[in-house]
Specification:
It contains twelve helices and eight strands. By secondary structure, the protein is of the alpha/beta class. Strands 3-2-1-4-5-6-7-8 form an eight-stranded mixed sheet, with helices on both faces. The longest helix is centred in the N-terminal third of the chain and has 26 residues. Keywords: Oxidoreductase.
């Protein structure tokens, strides 16, 4: 038993070393998509598509003629006008979506199903870095709901228009910090805890691991419906995520972490290439269940290979977001 534990820890340590080396090298590579696809007949939803990486994804898709629905909770009029100006694509619309509210997610999904016969691309991009708010009105951990639970529910609720596409693609957003998780079935939805830098980092890391897990699990369940589901790591990116986290928490740990990651940060349009590539590249018509970084495949976290663990997290999440038997896959 002791030997097995030692070997398991050694294997995990070697995996982390290999992953860290590959990730660091890849982060500074070009990472540009070679996709030449025309998307004039496609409709895409980009959550959080008015700011940061989401805005860059929206621009890239719109530049290929794609109809883009910017799904966000704030005023996105300025972003919409800028995207139209930059791409000359007028097929840009805005739809209200607050991932921290299950009611908002359901209302958004119902509206989409009424107004759009099909959705070809769903980019689950929206997320937060750190919050002082612990629990949402739904009784869910605020960070986990915004970064993971919301996208999990949204993807389920949009299966009808995704299936109608005939060849839809779904992209989940993750982070290298997902490798640093401490996720268990018990802390999947923490609601009673002390808020500090360590807890904020754990919640963020766990939420990003869950997105990788979701991408992998959705891919297995939706392949027969011709829906390709993959996950991509944004890498270091020059966005407002740290600025917003600092303003939200005022935490010294967040400030320090923001400072030490500066050398790894790249332009948001570089970070957005991965999502654009997975959403558009004709070379990836049959690609599903993979993790990409800078437009190339990357190793999954080892825990993704634990089918029992992944299935437990999946079933618990179904319960937390209130999926009915008919809505489950």
């Amino acid at each position: 038993m002791i030997c097995n534990n030692i070997l398991r820890k050694l294997s995990y340590f070697c995996h982390l070393i290999e992953f860290a080396i590959k990730w660091t090298i890849r982060n500074f590579q070009a990472g540009r998509s070679d996709s030449l696809a025309c998307l004039t007949d496609k409709t895409a939803i980009v959550t959080g598509g008015s700011r940061g990486i989401g805005y860059a994804i929206s621009v890239l898709l719109a530049s290929r003629g794609c109809r883009v629905i910017i799904a966000c909770r704030g005023n996105a009029t300025e972003a919409k006008e800028e995207i139209i100006k930059v791409t000359s694509n007028k097929n840009i619309t805005i739809a209200k979506l607050d991932l921290s509210s299950l009611k908002s997610i359901r209302e958004f999904a119902e509206n989409i199903k009424v107004t759009h016969e099909k959705i070809d691309i769903l980019i689950n991009n929206a997320g937060v870095g750190a919050l002082t708010q612990k629990v949402t009105e739904d009784g869910l951990n605020a960070t986990m709901q915004t970064n993971f639970f919301g996208s999990f529910l949204l993807t389920h609720l949009l299966l009808e228009p995704l299936k109608a596409s005939g060849k839809a693609r779904v992209v989940f957003t993750t982070s290298v910090l997902g490798e640093m998780h401490n996720l268990t079935l018990e802390n999947l939805n923490m609601t009673n805890y002390e808020m500090n830098f360590g807890t904020s980092m754990d919640l963020y890391s766990n939420s990003k691991l869950c997105n990788t897990l979701a991408g992998h699990q959705f891919s297995k369940r939706l392949r027969d419906h011709h829906i390709m589901v993959n996950t991509y790591d944004t890498g270091g990116a020059q966005t407002d995520i740290f600025k917003n986290a600092i303003n939200e928490t005022g935490n010294w740990g967040v400030r320090f972490f923001s400072f030490i990651t500066i050398p790894f940060q790249r332009d948001k349009f570089v970070a957005a290439q991965g999502a654009f590539h997975l959403a558009s590249s004709e070379k990836l018509n049959e690609e599903t269940g993979k993790l990409y970084f800078r437009c190339k495949p990357l190793l999954h976290p080892m825990i993704i290979n634990d089918e029992k663990f992944c299935d437990e997290i999946w079933k618990k999440t179904e319960e937390l977001v209130g999926l009915s038997p008919e809505e489950k896959i």
